[in-house]
Design brief:
Helix content: 40-55%
Structural class: alpha/beta
Radius of gyration: 28 Å
Strand order of the largest sheet: 1-3-4-2-8-9-10
Distance between the termini: 95 Å
Order of helices and strands: EHEHEEEEHEEHEHEHEHHH
Strand content: 15-25%
Length: about 300
Amino acid sequence: MAQPREWVGIQQFPSATQSRLHELLGKLKQENVNTLTILVMGKGGVGKSSTVNSIIGERVMAVSAFQSEGPRPVMVSRTRAGFTLNIIDTPGLVEGGYVNDQALELIKRFLLDKTIDVLLYVDRLDSYRVDNLDKQIVRAITDSFGKGIWKRGMVVLTHAQLTPPDSLTYEDFFSRRSEALLKVVRQGARINKQEVQGFPIPIELVENSGRCNKNDFDEKILPNGTAWISNLVNTITEVALNGSKPILVDKKLIEGPNPNERGKMFIPLILAFQYFFVINGIKGWIRDDEALETRSAWEDRD
């Protein structure tokens, strides 16, 4: 495996963003986190690759409005002051209106022996509804990596520089879109009401367009004035340090429980059933037969 390149893209950010990013990297290193691996997943065309480029500060992933994302997962690695950042971009999880099991299998195989520290589940803010397909995507991710991945998960909504419809305020529209999507995530991940407190899935907004507004410090900002790149990395840092267990993608996780191993747990029950109901029954029949034979012999002598 090639050595990761120096993270020179961080120098392309405005000085205010650079200062904040270095502060967050220092916070991770203080907690003995020297490597951070981020997995980016979602439907196609939602802005996964553009978000990777925005975080790295370089055009590391090809992005085109007229071309779908690459067919295979790609990991981009960068180092800075002894810290290594890995971001894994993945193909879209939908093909022809259904979850693409082949793409999901490809992603799982690519992730073998890697540890996932943060999951970015990417969708668009300007999508006005959620449906059963969203739930199926979340369920497919959960079935592949376990429910625990959502303890390491966050939702990222792209295309955030928009004018809300129906005379809604920006905050109202964001709140409604967030609530609807989080509800679907919890349903797809089978997170029940009692578990909700243990699964605080944060949502962050992203605007990757070059037309994104900027503040006086030349930082890209959302319509609510938030400098979104440093805010996104701050939330990634919080998720990485939330005390939950990172997801190690090993062979057992990918292939699921061995059906032979699963069957072994039933062997004692089967043996007990056989002993009490079958063997004891046979013994009873033998005793009855012996008793009949004994009585017949005495009767003959008399």
